[in-house]
Amino acid sequence: MSTITGHCLCGGVKFEVDRAKLGDAGYCHCTRCQRRTGTAASAQVSVEPGGVEITHGAERVKAYQPENGWAKLFCADCGSSLFSRSPDSDEPSSVRLGSLDPGHGIRPTHHRRVETAADWEPIPDDGLPRCEGGRA
User: How many domains does the chain have?
Assistant: First the structure.
């Protein structure tokens, strides 16, 4: 299968991701991801320009643009976190793994921003490399 499908919680936004344009996947432990998700980390996969096509509900996708950071894109109806966008791009640069339909086979390969990891949930001892810093 050359594409992966995904959608938001309410189904109002549907999209496809071109497997050939996928980059690395990882967990981000930055405080922005913690506040955005309400969890200790966010799992996402990077994607090259042109790698995401919103097939339904593009008008529902809204963005929060933090100062000095990547835009956080979400469904305006249900609030599902879907993508991030680089400050120098107008299209998604990463896709939240939780928004992808089952069977995609993508597995995180690292933990980043471990210096700001939540003290209430230790990073699991899963053998993945741990890095300080990274994009916000």
Answer: 1
DSSP category for residue 90: S
Residue 91's closest CA among 80, 102, 79, 83? 83
Do the domain assignments include residue 119?
Answer: yes
Residue 109 confidence (pLDDT): 96
In a domain, 127, yes or no: yes
Domain that includes residue 55, residue range: 3-131
- Cα separation, 126 vs 136, in Å, equals 23
Percent of all residues in the chain with a pLDDT value above 90, rounded to a whole number: 90
The domain that holds 115 is classified in CATH as 3.90.1590.10
Amino acid 136: pLDDT? 40
- Asked, for residue 136, whether it belongs to a domain, the answer is no
The answer, yes or no, to whether residue 135 has pLDDT greater than 60, is no
pTM value > 0.70? yes
Give the per-residue SS3 of 11-52. CCCEEEEEHHHEEEEEEECCHHHHHHHCCCCEEEEEECCCCE
